Amino acid sequence: MPFILSGIKYSMDFGCYDKDSGEVECYLEIHRDTRTSCAITIQMPNPEAVGCVERFATFLSFLLVIITFPFSLFECFKVVQEFERAVIFRLGRLRKGGARGPGLFFVLPCVDTYRKVDLRTVSFNVPPQEVLTRDSVTVAVDAVVYYRIKEPLNAVVRVADYSASTRLLAATTLRNVLGMRDLAQLLSDREAISHMMQANLDEATEPWGVEVERVEIKDVRLPVQLQRAMAAEAEADREARAKIIAAEGEIKASKALKEASLVMVDNPMALQLRYLQSLNTISAEKSSTIIFPFPMDFLRTFLGGAGPSISPSLPI
Q: I want to staple 84 with a disulfide (CB 3.0 to 4.6 A). Which of 73, 80, 187, 215 is the partner?
């Protein structure tokens, strides 16, 4: 890499290469006008290099497989299902190539160990959590969480027990999310709370290779005293609405009666017809005796020419 310092052109080279002894040698050379003015060489151990003891142990394992052949094949060949992956360690080191599976894979006895990881979606219930909402109401809330393993290597290497860690984190996240909401929001915005909890859990479990697919709020249990108070409030609200509806019905009925009275004033016979209709309705109940006045206006047609006129105000 060329550079200029005080009007003089320099060039610098830097690189690393592996040695047969398992070490990495790094060098730094600075040239001035095609002449080497400084050279630095650094040797450091290669963390991925296999030591002599590890090579000797691997050789003995291969030798054991050859001596006990073909019985050793039952211990060397393993099978994982379509929904499983195997993470292999050789003398404590993670083997290259990532997780094995699905299908058949090979391990060496005594030096190789492996762990199976299930990639299927797993669900678990979050125990009921006593949560104090933002408006100082104590409620018990439980939820269900669905998750799956996305990166088998991270799930084995970066966390001791991904299942237990996810469960504890879900319970803590549930309390934190619900503590920022009011009781009304908790009862009406369950879907928004579930999405918020899923996003928080997924972000926290991503380094572990765990993907949270879904979170659902199962039940919200209120104290008995609060349930009674809410029931009384709902009952009073319904009674108030019923009274308002009845009053509105009376107003509409009075307006209809006013319009009917105006029609009857214009046509007096309409009043008589309404009178007869009311009598017909009352006569449906045969268990009662009805006494009603009979107006003389109905007899004018029959008595008009037979004699003197009869006052309409005198009932028969």
A: 80
